[in-house]
Design brief:
about 190 residues, mainly beta, two-stranded antiparallel sheet
Length: about 190
Amino acid sequence: MLPVTGRSRLLPYVGLLPMIIGCLLVPGRSLSDDPTLQSLSLRARVSEQTLLGADAPEDFEEYDLSANLALPWEHYSPSGWGMGTRLMASAGVLRGAGEEALVVSLIPEVTLGSDDGRFIVDLGAGGALFSRYRFGTQDYGGPFQFALTLGVGIPFYQQLGVGYRFLHYSDAGVNGPDTTGADFHMIEFRYRFE
């Protein structure tokens, strides 16, 4: 088995960068549209099973509110299915080892699904700021963290929806080899404005 180096830990982030840049540069129906509020979501962590990186030495809870802004780069077929882009902005509380931190994030996303946002799959990479980055034995490495996310949403009742969100925070080894990120599996309750 090959040792994990700082450079190999960056590969998942570097691989997403061309995809996100490409999607933001591809023109859609109109580039003059302003971002519009698509939905608001309340989220809570239900598991922290590790998928990316090393296991976190501390247990965490995270609760947040996110606003999803539709961006103008989109392409939907006449049937109403296609892809688009949006910006997910969130603010919430991260708790671990008896400590709390404010976490705010801004994550551009590529979405696949229905144009009304009822059925959606999204993938994004962005950044987050932590008001505290040490929790007991867990050291995230610094206040700035890279954030990766993958979400799935389905309708529940009228404009209400439910979903699953995977969220990963990491400094990608920027602050040294002794830092550890964390993975969050979250349930999401969503209100669509469309």
